[in-house]
Design goal:
The structure holds 2 protein chains of 2 kinds. Chain A is an all-alpha fold. In chain A, 69% of the residues lie in helices and 2% in strands. Chain A is built from 14 helices and 2 strands, in the order αααααβαβαααααααα. A two-stranded antiparallel ribbon of chain A has the order 1-2. In chain A, helix 3 packs parallel to helix 5 and helix 7 crosses helix 8. By secondary structure, chain B is mainly alpha-helical. Chain B has a single domain, classed as ABC transporter involved in vitamin B12 uptake, BtuC, CATH 1.10.3470. Chain B is built from 14 helices and no strands. In chain B, helix 3 packs across helix 11, helix 7 packs antiparallel against helix 12 and helix 11 runs parallel beside helix 13. The longest helix of chain B is centred in the N-terminal third of the chain and has 50 residues. Classes of the chains: A mainly alpha, B mainly alpha.
Chain lengths: 307, 375
């Protein structure tokens, strides 16, 4: 059967791979967009993501429900986010450095508590077979779309709308652009950032739970390959626009799927180099979009990383 | 009589400021020691609570840590051996930090430094020892320096955030290492663990006489001292500190900020690359996936604990080397997962960063406050 579609298998595998690989990027980058729009950066999302992957998997093993796993991961993510938001409100505490520390701490805790869950297998999240009309297995595989991807897409649109049209969206943007203006309006920037970081943490942890509960679908210590960090760069590339995040996540997913897709049709030369594709792409995008002479369009004014 | 009065007066004038300024100096200097040390103690206390919560004894932990890290000559040597790469990877964080940059991708420079060193050694085998070791050191430092130097250049000329770019570069470096080690540079004889051709016993870096610790420790300590002299005692280091404090002020003074940033990041990367070279030359004997052992990441913690002071890095690296060395013992005796050390390190890191908020808050460390009260 695989011979019948020949090289068409490559774009199909990349499409299917892009959908699979991009889902955690969507969630982490949407979460980070909310946090960064409020004027803070949380580099610790990598740790939150790994801890979410462990919590989600462990809960699903114990309860038998992947959705309870997602819920538990989100709660853990909120705790991590609240911790980051709380500690960063103290003067002279650097949000980037705290992020690095929380990354190490989150990963350490995840490996510490996750050890007993490496062996047992958890139920997976469901997928919707949009490829039912085709008899070609590759088409069916590529179009079998997981539910979280669809939720992520809807969430991106909802956030895009909410940032423009709702009171909460406006509050987050004001705090992110000028803490002084927010204070003049009677808002407490630290409180707004605390909640924005908590929501960001919850979404990042859901992204992590996707990794352990759908693709690759098991809990190991090497579950994350830096998605939490790449998402931070991705948010900058997407100019803090939720719909841009969705598109960028798909692009990253495609880059991540390139290596395995080429390998599946027998390309073995320089196999390991293709694994670097998402990182190289991120770096190139950062080089292309950053500028030493002006601030990035759409950047929140209070954000330390673009100053 | 007329002559003695001015002398006596002079004596008073000279003696009084020396005694108070000595106290002042002690008060001011001790802040940078007392606060991190206090934070370390608080971090250990929180971790003890965590252990109590799990039903484990914190006293056992401290005992095992002291025993496993510094209990006897054997464990001290083990700790020192583990400290060697940490000294160099901590410099990879501390040097750029003096310029206000947070570079956390030292792991990439370690890995590429190791691969470059192995690649340089293999065609030279048969040449005199000094030539091979020299070539390995130069290749390792050049590869690491180039890698982190790129991060610095991107920061200055393209305003690319150095924290994220250095980490991305670390992932790219590990992919490159896998490519070289499993592809062009692979020794076909290495079956289970793909490696480059071994450099051979005759070319390995030996131990310090009388100790079971390789020369990498000496290299690391020398690098720390050189870095300290560079930052504190040279015009180049002074310029870097100005640029780290205020970029605009440095530019107005006509300092070449770009050159400073690229120079410091390249030097920082060269030290991390040297750590990779030493790992190949003194421990592994060839380049393989063991190079990515996390030295780059532990180095971040060492640098922050030492507040980016190269001399303070030496005791901190030895302390963390000891904690690392005791990890196996803690794991076996207390039946804890191997990630215990990671949790402790992460916790210490958070507490240390949090303690930054305490600087300048205590009257004790600010003689201006209590001296004025006395007068």
């Amino acid at each position: 059967m695989s011979d019948s579609i020949g090289l068409w298998g490559v774009p199909l595998a990349i499409l299917g791979g892009a959908i699979r690989v991009s889902t955690p990027f969507i969630f982490v980058s949407l979460g980070e967009t909310i946090t960064e729009r409020s004027g803070r950066i949380n580099l610790g999302l990598e740790g939150t993501l790994v801890f979410g992957a462990m919590t989600g998997y462990a809960t699903a093993v114990v309860t038998g429900s992947p959705w309870l796993g997602i819920l538990a991961a989100a709660c853990a993510g909120i705790l991590f986010g609240l911790f980051h938001g709380w500690i960063c409100k103290f003067p002279k505490v650097n949000d980037i450095a705290i992020g690095i520390a929380l990354m190490q701490f989150g990963m350490g805790l995840a490996f510490f508590f996750g050890k007993p869950f490496i062996q047992p297998s958890a139920p997976h999240l469901p997928a919707i077979p949009f490829g039912w009309w085709s008899s070609v297995p590759q088409v069916q595989a590529a179009l079998s779309v997981n539910v979280l991807f669809i939720i992520g897409a809807l969430l991106a649109v909802a956030l895009w709308w909410a940032f423009r049209n709702t009171r909460v969206g406006l509050i987050i943007r004001v705090v992110g652009d000028s803490a002084d203006a927010a204070r003049a309006m009677g808002l407490n920037p630290n409180t707004v950032r605390l909640f924005a970081t908590a929501v960001g943490g919850a979404l990042a942890a859901i992204g992590g739970a996707y990794l352990s509960l759908y693709y690759p679908g098991s809990w190991t210590e090497g579950i994350s390959s830096g998605q939490g960090l790449m998402a931070v760069a991705l948010v900058i590339f997407a100019r803090w626009n939720p719909i841009g995040c969705f598109a960028a996540a798909l692009l990253f997913g495609g880059a991540g799927a390139l290596g395995p897709a080429l390998q599946s049709v027998g390309v073995t030369q320089g196999y390991y180099l293709f694994y670097a594709a998402p990182y190289v792409l991120t770096l190139l995008i950062m080089v292309a979009t950053a500028s030493p002479s002006r601030q990035l369009a759409g950047a929140p004014g209070e954000l330390s990383i673009t100053k | 009589m007329a002559d003695t009065t001015p002398e006596a007066l002079q004596g008073v004038v000279i003696v009084a400021p020396i005694s108070t300024s000595w106290l002042e100096l002690l008060a001011r200097r001790s802040e940078a020691v007392v606060i991190p040390f206090g934070a370390f103690i608080v971090g250990m206390a929180i971790f003890s609570l965590f252990l109590l919560f799990l039903g484990k004894s914190p006293i056992d932990l401290v005992n095992l840590m002291v025993k496993g890290g510094f209990g006897n000559w054997f464990s001290i040597q083990n700790s020192l051996q583990r400290a060697a790469p940490l000294l160099l990877t901590a410099l990879c964080v501390a040097l750029p930090a003096r310029l206000g940059l947070v570079v956390i991708g030292g792991e990439g420079a370690v890995v590429l430094g190791g691969v470059a060193a192995a690649a340089a050694a293999v065609p030279l085998l048969g040449a005199p020892y000094v030539v091979v070791i020299g070539a390995m050191a130069i290749a390792g430092m050049a590869a690491g320096g180039l890698w982190i130097g790129i991060v610095g250049a991107l920061r200055h000329y393209r305003a690319v955030n150095e924290t994220i770019s250095s980490l991305l570069m670390a992932y790219i470096a590990i992919a490159l290492m896998n490519h070289f080690v499993e592809g062009p540079l692979r020794d076909p004889a290495s079956l289970n663990k793909p490696s480059t051709y071994p450099i051979g016993k005759d070319y390995m870096i030996g131990n310090i006489p009388g100790m079971d610790v390789h020369w990498g420790l000496v290299a690391g300590i020398v690098a720390c001292i050189v870095s300290w002299v560079l930052i504190e005692k040279t015009a180049f280091g002074f310029a870097a500190r100005i640029a780290g404090g205020n970029v605009r002020a440095a530019q107005i003074q006509g300092l070449a900020v770009g050159k400073l940033i690229v120079g410091f990041t390249a030097l920082a990367g060269a030290f991390a690359g040297l750590a990779g070279m030493i790992e190949v030359g003194a421990v592994q004997g060839s380049a393989n996936a063991s190079l990515a052992a996390g030295y780059g990441y532990t180095g971040i913690l060492v640098a922050f604990l030492a507040r980016h002071n190269p001399l303070a890095i030496i005791p901190v690296a030895i302390l963390l080397g000891g904690i690392d060395a005791s990890g196996g013992l803690i794991q076996r005796r207390m039946d804890l997962p191997d990630a215990t050390v990671l949790v402790l390190q992460g916790l210490l890191f958070i507490v240390i960063l949090f303690s930054e908020t305490l600087y300048g808050r205590f009257k004790l460390f600010n003689p201006d406050l209590w001296l004025r009260n006395r007068q």
